Amino acid sequence: MQPQKMHEMVKPLQWLMGTWKSISAKVMYPTMKTVDFEEKLCFLSAGQPLLNYSSTTWNPKDKAPMHLEYGYLRIDEEGCLVALLTAMNFGISTVEEGTLQEKSLTTNSKSIAHTKFAKMPVVALQRCYCLNDKCQLSYTLKMQTERTPLSTHLECLYEKEEEKS
Fold it and tell me: Most buried one in 7, 11, 30, 165, CB count within 10 A?
């Protein structure tokens, strides 16, 4: 999808808009060993009062796809409340809500749906995106399952890809 003109309502999210490539990315959990991965993260405007969201991850050694996520990031009229709607290739979809403060966005799951055969039933998610003083995007995802308390699952750092003219 080609980025479109930004809708007025998403201007508070302008710092997040674009395509981001991981500099470092790790997946971890109390029930697994830490693994490196690579990721392309996109928050793009379609000219609507929301951003299209996608996340594609792959194994850095053999480039095999790992986790895929697609969805939408919405913002309220006051520009401080957000909702992230996602669908994942592991058979999970979420509705997450949170807050936007300056160059930081935090969401917590409000609803999580699973396919009958999803590997690990997730009961809670918490995400935090933050733009640092080097214009790098940091991202932390915490996850809770039926057997494991809310724990860090992903830690990533991204740099923005240059826009093609």
Answer: 7
* Residues 105-116: tens digit of each pLDDT: 999 999 999 999
Predicted pLDDT at 5:
83
Q: Which domains does the chain have, with CATH numbers?
A: 8-160 (2.40.128.20)
- Residues of the chain below pLDDT 50: none
Pseudo-torsion of CA 6, 7, 13, 19, nearest 10°? -30
Q: Distance (Å, rounded) from C-alpha 20 to C-alpha 57?
A: 12
Please tell me the predicted confidence (pLDDT) of residue 163.
74
Report angle CA 68, 121, 30 to the nearest 5 degrees: 85
CB 98 within 8 A of CB 106: yes
**In which element (H, E) is residue 82 found?**
strand 81-88
Give the three-class secondary structure for 12. helix
What does the alpha-carbon distance between residue 84 and residue 127 come to, in Å, rounded to a whole number? Answer: 10
Residue entry with tokens 């999803």: 118
Distance (Å) of CA 83 to CA 62, 65, 86, 108: 34, 27, 10, 9
